[in-house]
Design goal:
- By secondary structure, the protein is mainly α.
- Among the domains are: 1-56, no CATH class; 135-200.
- The protein is built from 7 helices and 2 strands, in the order ββααααααα.
- The protein has a two-stranded antiparallel sheet.
- α2 (62-70) packs across α5 (115-158), α3 crosses α4 and α5 (115-158) runs antiparallel to α7.
- The chain is elongated.
- The N and C termini lie far apart (65 Å).
Amino acid sequence: MKVLVGNNGNIDLDGPVEMNRKQRKAFFELMGDMFAVVQEEKSNVVRFERLGNKMFLRQWEPEEYALLLEIEDTKIISEKLGRSWMSVDIKRGEFFSNFMIWVQKKGKNIIDDNVTELIEEFLKEKENDKFLRKEKKKLARQKKKEIRVLEARIENIRSPMNRRRLEIIRSMRKDLDIEAVINEEVAKVQSEIDCIKIELGEA
């Protein structure tokens, strides 16, 4: 077994390590003694990249966020979670104020309520909001594309080629008003554009 030590002192393993039940139990007990939050997760994915190849961002768990509320000392939390002090400091800054605003808005109480459950609810709602914003942006891009297509259609309606087409038709229909036809078609397309802009809040 080869243990890798990165330039910042982070530890990684060179590859998967096979353990029997007794070894695995002892390993998790050791990790539990060293760190406040240790979770076992089943995985079928083999990670070939290792420390030194790239930077791996480890997702924060609700129990880890809870420690940010319980302990003020960044160094202590860093040691308990096995994370850098900078990671803890940054996460505290972006999480604490947003979470407290959310708690107040929801009428919750971090003293009486289960903090970990509150954090799970907060993160789930935040992730849902992120998804909705992403979908809204995607829809806006689609709508703007529709506007560009419609604007191109207006240019085509006003084009010399279309005028020549209408002149050919007028040679057979003397009562045809070319300008009136063009203006009517442009007005219809422009109406579609205006409706889309209202949806986008640009009207």
